[in-house]
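Researcher: Going back to the complex we discussed earlier. I've cleaned up the inputs and rechecked each line, so this should be the final set. Can you rerun the prediction on the complete assembly and write out the structure?
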Amino acid sequence: MENEKILAQMPDQTKEERAVKGASALTRLKNRFGLHTARDVLEFSVHGFFFLCGFLAVACVLFISVYLVVSGLPAMLEIGVADFLLGDTWTARQGQFGILPFILTSVAGTGGAILIGVPVGVLTAMFLAKVANNKVAAVIRSAVSLLAGIPSVVYGLVGMVVLVPAVQQAFGLSSGANLLSAIVVLAVMILPSIINVAETSLRAVPKEYEEASLALGATHIETIFRVSLPAARSGVATSIVLGVGRAIGEAMAIIMVSGNVANMPGSLFTPVRFLTTAITSEMNYAPAGSLWKESLFSIGLVLFLFIMLINVILNVFIKNKKEG
Amino acid sequence: MQAILKTEHLDLWYGTNQALKDVSLDMPEHQVTALIGPSGCGKSTFLKTLDRMNDLVPGVRIEGKVLYRGRNIFDPDMDVTSLRRHVGMVFQKPNPFPMSIYDNIAYGPRTHGIRGKRELDEIVERSLRGAAIWDEVKDRLKKSALSLSGGQQQRICIARALAVEPDVLLMDEATSALDPISTSKIEDLIADLKKEYTIVIVTHNMQQATRVSDQCAFFLHGELVEAGETGQIFSVPKDKRTEDYITGRFG
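Model: Rerun complete. Updated structure for the full complex:
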């Protein structure tokens, strides 16, 4: 009985196969992916479109990485990697391409911004998550999101018009455009990301922990510092790394307040140039095809490596958070 | 027997909803008082009022008195942190801090200013012994308290509460999240602890109430229906509602 049924179907199947063989390439493709109805075709094409979109992001990252290496490496090798990274003088017109001042400035600027931004940001987050009443918290939170939305050029502008003269007067300097001003601007710029991420992780601390602490006779503030904050530490660490990433990649705001001179960052009052601003300020002047221009791409490569490193650290934190 | 904790005409509202109605109850020293009653009857609310943990609930309003050693805990000059130090609490769900076992126990004493390592070591050992868990954890005090089983975690929480040397221990359904073996360990522990502490427990488990308590208080819809010696409550309840509840006619 079963066999008869199968035998009866056989001729049809063979016919179908024959038809497929003779059919156009398109039909064959359709059958191969199981696209029998119009709905299947739509499903398949939407899948394909999604894949394309996803691939686009990957392609961009790949392209940028490859492009930076290809365009940045030759100049670095020509100058000598050690001379390039550790040379303390940058006078491109005289063929001196040492970017140590830029590296140290970026590190010092970011470090300074973290030193100011993290305590202020984390304390704000603690206030928002644990202390402030709903109304006050709502006002502060919307102010913080607004702060995050302000374009960096506006930070630079306000810094230049307000902060730089203030620093100049306060410390009796010939110019207020220096490392200190850049640090202050960066510190304000990284506040929103620190506050948001830290607040979210503080809110996620189970209230049972806090109740246990209060029931032992700890005060509200003791509880926040000794139970809530340690319980949220991986989130707070993530927020700090995010802040570092934001600070080290910033160019527009700090080019206007940092003085933009290729000095070693000897003191807070030295006019300095960052990795980012070194690129933006000279890209238009360097003649095409010159070692000077190519070395700017090399700076880009160094900056890129810094950002990659920060991303790796960030991923480690996020992974730890999921596991812990 | 002297009452170390007593309430007098205690009323409590959450917003407009009255959760406790004119509750007057004595909790004698070195005895176990069990609060029983169906869900939502106010027994947990009552317990949380005794160490003022209800202060944390927005919109709560309290009238009447809670006397701890003769002093009204709602007096304006009452120091809440010092009250909570003397009246400890163990919660329904084991809630050790995400820290090492040692740091969990040392948290309270450190909060109250004890810094010396030797002194802390002593307190940690004494508290863990007091909660009958020292032998199980003495070799891994630096391990995270979250790595322990639920029953062990709950005994860590009891040890943590003992570390600040309270007079009274409040336990809010402290065994309801645990397996029968852990539950019986904690019941044994309660029997042991009442030599030194006064204990008030909330329980849904009638057998538990008969096993561990000296005194029982039956709550219904925010009212204290009947309170008395546990044997009497379970054998000859005075109130019809108490009888209906303990015989399982509702609840």
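Model: Worth noting: Chain A touches chain B at residues 206, 208-209, 211-219, 222, 226-227, 230-231 (CB under 8 Å).
Researcher: Good, that matches what I expected from the previous run.
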